[in-house]
Design goal:
This protein is mainly α. It has 22 helices and two strands. Helix 2 runs antiparallel to helix 3, helix 16 runs parallel beside helix 17 and helix 19 packs antiparallel against helix 21.
Length: about 475
């Protein structure tokens, strides 16, 4: 293990994080928030000096191997969440470190679960920071560091593999640094486009920025107590639905579309499966809502489509208290928390491509029963999926469900009812945010004991880094030479 290169790279990440605190500082100065200005100044000084200290104290060695990549990815998120608590603590938003860390980890992992009981009563600059860290975590701070640090060179691929969601990260360019830059360029272009759309539709620039932060990263934090439902504006709903849907799709597809390859959408089986899941779920829920809840088909489609896209993409925005909907609708949303977005998106959970391959694997098993000697490889479109990838996906799914069950048992042991315990783990492990019951869309996670919050923080990290990146660090063999 090359500890010097690990610590040096973590120093670069922390330094970047400290510099990024300048943006909410500007808002604190603009809104004349007094003591909050000093809170951000202190946070910037501590964070940047810590980053510089690590950079200069540990001269990087040549190359980042697989082991270093895993360590940097996992510790990167843990440290980012740690330093991200400073503005919350110094501003007095939280007095309990665990609450501050929960909120920070929820932001960086784009989970969107909150322990804030009243959001709108907090300083606007602090809320801006809370939303900004989601956007930074969306495509991955690690990927951004790769994009801006040429010193990492080819070794950056190890970080890219460790951080980018999905079974097989796509490379758009031969050099990983170029790929990271292209992905972030696409991310920024679409982000700017959403801000423009919201702003010209009547939303203030501050609100447009903060809601873009929560949308493009599929995070779900907003500066409003009622989330997007605060506005009760169908136009805002539609714009956010469109951009949540975009954020939940593979960003390499967006790159191809921006270069005029529209057919790539129709050729991509995962994208078609993702779209089909959303349309079918919306149809079923809208039908039930029209019968039992809303008086018009427009209202039923409006609220059903928003929540289906929000939950499927693991964004977690809400426009209605879906915990009050009929059981079938709630159960469909709960299932969608496990499916999540596409590989290579900012969404969380298991991912559509894995679900699709698992379904094809199940179909193949039926074919083997009928035709024991037949050789039936699994294909997704015109691409043959190797048995190794299929086995990896099966193992991932089983491990995901085991962690979900263990987490649920722990939460019930802390006094949560089954619905709340089950959905709290599903919502944090899948990086969704709001769940059902006591952690539903009109509630928060503040009531959960500190040990429960720590468990859910671990779930967020495992979900964001797709389990293996984190758990490999506790395997003794990993640390052997």
């Amino acid at each position: 293990m090359k500890f010097k290169v690990v610590l040096n790279t973590l120093g670069s990440l922390i330094l970047f994080l400290g510099i990024s605190m300048v943006f909410p500082l500007f808002y604190a100065i603009y809104y004349q928030e007094g003591d909050i200005v000093y809170a951000f100044v202190a946070s910037i000084i501590i964070t940047t000096l810590s980053g510089l200290l690590l950079q200069y104290a540990f001269t990087p060695e040549n190359g980042i191997g697989r082991k270093e990549g895993f360590v940097i990815a996992s510790l990167g998120w843990i440290l980012a969440a740690g330093f991200g608590t400073l503005p919350f603590l110094f501003s007095g938003t939280f007095t309990n470190f665990i609450d501050a860390y929960f909120e920070s980890m929820s932001g960086f992992t784009t989970t969107g679960a909150t322990v804030l009981s009243s959001i709108e009563g907090n300083p606007l600059s602090v809320l801006f920071w809370r939303d900004q860290i989601q956007w930074m975590g969306g495509m991955g701070i690690i990927v951004l560091v790769i994009a801006i640090l040429p010193a990492l060179g080819v070794g950056g691929m190890q970080l890219f593999r460790s951080e980018v969601p999905g079974p097989e990260p796509d490379k758009l360019k031969p050099r990983i640094k170029e790929t990271a830059k292209l992905l972030y360029l696409v991310y920024i272009i679409i982000s700017v486009l959403q801000v423009v759309c919201l702003y010209i539709s009547g939303m203030s620039l501050y609100d447009a920025l903060t809601h873009m932060f929560g949308t493009m990263c599929t995070g779900g934090f907003t500066p409003k107590n009622l989330s997007v439902g605060h506005y009760n504006n169908p136009t805002y709903d539609l714009i956010i639905i469109i951009f949540m849907f975009i954020a939940g799709a593979n960003f390499t597809l967006h790159y191809k579309v921006l270069h005029g390859d529209l057919k790539s959408l129709l050729k991509d089986r995962e994208f078609l499966f993702y779209t089909g899941i959303i349309l079918l779920s919306t149809l079923i829920i809208a039908t039930q809502l029209r019968i039992y809840v809303y008086n018009t088909i427009f209202a039923a489609i409006r609220y059903a489509s928003f929540q289906v896209v929000s939950i499927t993409t693991t964004t977690g925005f809400v426009t209605a208290d879906y915990d009050q909907w009929p059981d079938l609708s709630k159960n469909i949303l709960l299932v969608l928390m496990f499916i999540g977005g596409c590989a290579g998106s900012t969404g969380g959970a298991i991912k559509n491509i894995r679900i699709l391959i698992l379904l094809k694997k199940a179909s193949r098993e039926f074919q083997k029963i009928l035709h024991p000697h037949a050789i039936t490889p699994i294909h997704v479109g015109d691409k043959k999926i190797s048995d190794e990838v299929v086995n990896n996906i099966t193992s991932f799914f089983m491990l995901y469900m085991i962690i979900f069950v263990i987490g649920t048992l722990i939460m019930t042991s802390l006094g949560l009812d089954m619905t709340s315990a089950l959905s709290s783990v599903a919502a944090t492990l899948g990086n969704v945010g709001p769940g059902l019951g006591l952690v539903g869309p009109s509630q928060n996670y503040a009531f959960i004991p500190d040990i429960g919050k720590i468990i859910l923080c671990i779930c967020m990290l495992l979900g964001r880094l797709e389990i293996y990146t984190v758990l490999i660090l506790v395997v003794p063999e990993f640390w052997k030479k």
